[in-house]
Amino acid sequence: MALLKRKSKTTDQISKNTVLYAQNVRKSFGSKGNVQQVLKGIDLRVEEGEFVGIMGASGAGKTTLLNILATIDRATEGTILISGSDISKMKDAAMAAFRRNQLGFIFQDYNLLDTLTVKENILLPVSLGKMRKKLAEAEFRTIADILGIADLADKYPHEISGGQKQRTSAARALINQPSMVFADEPTGALDSKSASSLLGTMADINEKRGVTIMMVTHDPLASSYCSRVVFLKDGNIYTELYKGDKTRQAFFQEILNIQAVLGGESIDAL
Amino acid sequence: MTLFDLAFRSMRKNIKHYYLYFFALIFSVVLYFVFATLQHDPAVLAQNEQMSTAFLAAGILLIFIAGIFVVYANSIFLKRRSREIGLYQLIGLKKRVVARLLVIENFLLGITALILGIIVGMLVSRVFLLLLMKLIGYDLMIDVSFSMTAVIQTVFVFIGIFMFTTIQMISTVYRNTLLSLFNTEKTGEHPKKPKTRNAAFLAILGIALIVLGYLISDNMLNDLFLFNILAVLASIGVGTYLIFRVTIGWVFYKIRDGKAGHLGLSNSLSLAPLMHRLKGNANSLTIITILSAMTLTMLAGAYSFYYATEHETRSQMPFDFIFEKNETEATELSKEFDEKGISYTHGAIDLLVLFGRMEEGAMPVPSNELYIAIVSDKQLQQAGSDIEAPADGSAIFYSTSSISMFRDVIEMPLTLHLADDEKTTIEIAEYAEGNSINGTMLYSQLVVNESTYEQLKDQFTATGQAEMSRVDGFTITDSADLEAASEIYVQRYNTSGHIDYYSAYQRAIETNGLLIFISGFLGLVFLISTGSILYFKQMTEAEQEKKSYGTLRQLGFSVKDIMRGIIKKQVFVFGLPLVLGLVHAIFAIKVLSSFFQSDIAFAAFVAMAMYTFIYLIFAFLTVGYYRNTVKNAL
């Protein structure tokens, strides 16, 4: 009974614009006697069109949180709703289908299939869906133009640069018009110029197409492109920063200040 | 930790990758040991000299197959471990030490396989000996004696093979740079756009050559028989290679081009990775196809021989015993049969022997002249035969001479001129299978009805153009008496050079039993080698693509979706060599079947079905391995 009551309460709290709602998310690893709690009860809400950055020192649980929210991993405890679907109660197969239809992913090391061309890689997520070929083609054109990779359509991953690979990866994440895009250290393997160019494009897409993005990063410069940054410390949310009307430079400075208080980042930066 | 410990640990850790190689190794040892045991077995030696020689020859072939297989498998495993080899060097182990580590591993693995293989070999060799004796028609209970010679022989052969693999390992360590060791896993090729005109030409040439080969094989029974065989082998061999090297790539490229980027998941997991490994796979797939075709032909041929033994012998020797121009002996034999209580049918058959001439071009042979014996169906029937001649003036033709190869090709009816007489002709209504009278004679036979026979006899004995001869035919009523009757005959006429049906049958079943045993054995080794090699290669590919499967899982594709694409790839990798091999073999067996009097389709089908069944086990193992890889990829 208590459970039911609690569930109805959470549903009430979700406004129309909430894309992601997480309550009391806990995750522990290890077996009996040697349990390690990585996430100690995270509450998080992401509104439509937000560009949320998640920061924290190594071991703070950023990637674990992202994996759980992105349905790649399961929480030990807690409720997670994405676009109104309760993913914490889904079966594996349903979760996979949900991931395919509702979510997009950008990985640190691109994770492109070497045997496929840029275009084939990008169109992969819609291959099992119901999207018609014409529509998929049009969507591909639009996204490839925005990301500036339209000319690379027939190239193989080994023929293009890291920045271009990551743009391809981003295009793949966007092709199925997901409710939300998850990015795990997308600039981690890029040089600073390609990184800022990619982040600029991501911010642009976020703004113009209204795509909700959640990005894990340890780089303050990268998170300065976000509209909100959530700081994790030892499995809890430490604090949050909103960009608001501030300039990117000012926001960047604020992020640095929090990071200084948080500490530990120096180790990660190495 | 000593080097020995390290070797032991790394073996234990690698057992997942090793176990199939290990089993294949043990299996090779078992088979070779069984062969060596049979070769030296007193029971086999007692049978006849020829059998021991056959085992020796097959054993040498077995050494080659086992050797090539072990060396090839070892090279695949070395490639998989090149990163590990590099890592040892990176942390500062000397090349010498790394080489020694590998050699110790190889030694441990080899010795274990050798010991296990010989133990298992001892246990199963009795089963194999019983099987052999059953196949060649002996029901004796025989004990397999333990043969030290066989053990020593096996140990020597496999130590020789292990020396090869050891050299292979040492040269991998010494001849590769660190960089190349770390990069071997990545060396996939990248498909290039084929030069359209050249590729299209070669692609079509590949198909054309195979079709040409099939066409020649269908009409190869002529003067140029040997040349035809070479032409067929060459065109099918080259055609098969071109199919795998060019045609497939070209077709794949066309399909992919047509998709314009909308490749879809299942093609992304089958077509695309196949295109990336086409060059590397072309050789092995060609060899596997050709080997499969050869093995299938060998198996189907051997099984057909065995299966058709009774029918073949009977069609050559329709009577159980005959005597030529020897009435007294015939009477004596019947007397003895009467004494022993063996019931039989005995009849005398008169032969009208003369020359006949085919019309020009009626048969594809250089000479149109035939030496012919004309017999009456009634006399044959009196001796126990059930042949019935057609209407007056026409005949059934029997001949097991070399023209019998063309039995299905020659158009019937045809006209035969008798003696030098231009006017007297007889119509051959049918070219029947086998002989009408046991084939101890040189002539073809024409069976006619009695009135035709009498008329021809009168005509030609009057002119002196024909000679008369006589044959006494015996048919034993109850086949249970055959063995006893044969014994009597052999005792009496052992030296006369004549052979009775039962002895001929026994001799044939002995030879064919040995043939099916040895070819079945070798076929199994071929099959297991090719199957394992495909499995090893796919295992390596699965490991290389594990990351892609992880990505796909993350993107939200279920294991089932991914497996659908992978199965499609396996259907190609395993299916195409099998199907091509089967079709090649079918055409080869069609040629082979013209040497048989009887229909071998059923026997060939059984052999092919069994081959396919065992082969498919490897395909299923491979799919299972992929499923595990995909499941654990996330």
Automatic annotation (TrEMBL), chain A:
SUPFAM superfamilies: P-loop containing nucleoside triphosphate hydrolases. Residues 20-259 form the ABC transporter domain. InterPro entries: AAA+_ATPase, ABC_transporter-like_ATP-bd, MacB-like_ATP-bd, P-loop_NTPase. The keyword Transcription regulation does not apply. PROSITE patterns: ABC_TRANSPORTER_2. The keyword ATP-binding applies. Keywords: ATP-binding, Nucleotide-binding, Transport. One of its GO terms (molecular function) is ATP binding. Belongs to the ABC transporter superfamily. This is ABC transporter ATP-binding protein.
UniProtKB/TrEMBL annotation, chain B:
The keyword Membrane applies. Keywords: Cell membrane, Membrane, Transmembrane, Transmembrane helix, Transport. It comes from the Bacteria. Residues 58-174, 521-621 form the ABC3 transporter permease C-terminal domain. It holds the Pfam family FtsX. Belongs to the ABC-4 integral membrane protein family. This is ABC transporter permease. It comes from Planococcus wigleyi.
